[in-house]
Structure formats: C-alpha cells, structure tokens
Amino acid sequence: MDMAKYETILRNRQRELNARLHRIDDDLGRQKSADNEDRATETENDEVLEEMGQAGENELKAIDAALDRIANGTFGTCVKCGQAISPERLAAVPYTPFCQECAAEL
Exposed/middle/buried for 29, CB within 10 Å: 0-12, 13-18, 19+? Predict the structure, then answer.
C-alpha cells in the first residue's frame, strides 16, 4: 500500500477543510442585519453553517486519526477486526478506520 499517496490525499483534504472552516467562522462572525426578516434568514443560514462546521470538524478528527495510523504503521487495517481495508473503500473514504463489513455492522 502506498502510504505516501494516502498521506497526500489526507493532508490535501485537511487543508481544504481548514480553509472551509475559516470561511464559516468568518461568515458566522459577520454583523447581523437590523431588519427582522433579514435577521431570521441569517439565523437559518447560521444554523446550516454551524452544522457544516461541525461536520467539517468531525471529518478533521477522522483525518487526524488516519494520519496517526499512518505514522504508527496501522493505516489500512480495520481497527475493529484487524483485517485489511480494501483499496476501493480507502479510495472512497481515505480516513476510514473500518473495513466494509465492520462499518456495515456499525
């Protein structure tokens, strides 16, 4: 397995997420409109941004864990059953800690 390839993929995604989270923080920090209707729309938009931010933070944690597994030499091995994670699964979700079977059980 080409660990350098996966490390590059993970680090690129990490950079993308950090940039997105920075933009979300900037948007959430903007001053709100004085108009009640506009403020209601902004509140709804803020809720969506917060959910996107939380999803991004969760993905970053998973990426950090995957990078730790690369450093420890356990990347590509299911943390639950110890079997190899298929290249197809890693191509789809490069930070996954689970093989297809264990992920389906969860």
Answer: exposed
Q: Which sequence spans correspond to the domains of the chain? A: 3-105
Architecture of the domain spanning 3-105? Up-down Bundle (1.20)
- Tokens found for residue 81: 């059953």
Per residue in 16-73, pLDDT (tens digit) is 999 999 988 887 777 665 666 666 666 677 778 788 889 999 999 999 999 999 999 9
What pLDDT is recorded for position 53? Answer: 85
Separation CA 69–CA 26 (nearest Å): 32
SS (H, E, C) the chain: CCHHHHHHHHHHHHHHHHHHHHHHHHHHHCCCCCCHHHHHHHHHHHHHHHHHHHHHHHHHHHHHHHHHHHHHCCCCECCCCCCECCHHHHHHCCCCCCCHHHHHHC
Longest dimension (CA), the chain: 57
